[in-house]
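Thread: "does anyone have the structure for this chain?"

Original post by V.I.:
We have the sequence but no experimental structure in hand. Need at least a predicted one for the grant figures.
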Amino acid sequence: MTNDIPAWVDGTLTPIDKLEAHLRGLRHKAVSVFLLHGDAVLIQRRALEKYHTPGLWANTCCTHPHWDESPLDCATRRLREELGIEGVTLAPRGQVEYRADVGGGMIEHELVDIFVGYAPKGLEVAPNPDEVMDTAWVPLDELHRQTRDDAARFTPWLRIYLEEHSEQILADL
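Reply from O.Q.:
Generated one for you, tokens below.
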């Protein structure tokens, strides 16, 4: 499997190495998922081996689609790969764009397709330790408070989603 992701180079969507896209701060496609249960959101703590933002808390999962992969297929795949979650129906919540410094000289400049899913009671979560070191169900109001009061524990994109796009993404809560 290649590390190429769809990124815009000189105005043209082009397959480019994921690390290069981040080092150059190129705008690229991404997918983010939020799983909800009652008033809580499933968040994950990124594995310490991740090449950027290791050990920080993020939304349920996020990734970059393969070249010819639909955003929905990508979101479904990544739920399975990162968290062992299957069978959850995902609903699109539109796109958001952000640009953020993620450390190590890397910039995330993403055009993100957002998906929301509703977890059934007793949903089994089996994190892939190469991707995820911990998970937690956090009430949305508590998550807002934590990202404001202790921002350094959270990925820049989660803080951006909550501060700037919460109504679009999490209107149901």
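V.I.: this helps a lot. The domain at 4-170 is CATH 3.90.79.10 (Nucleoside Triphosphate Pyrophosphohydrolase).
O.Q.: and The longest helix spans residues 71-83.
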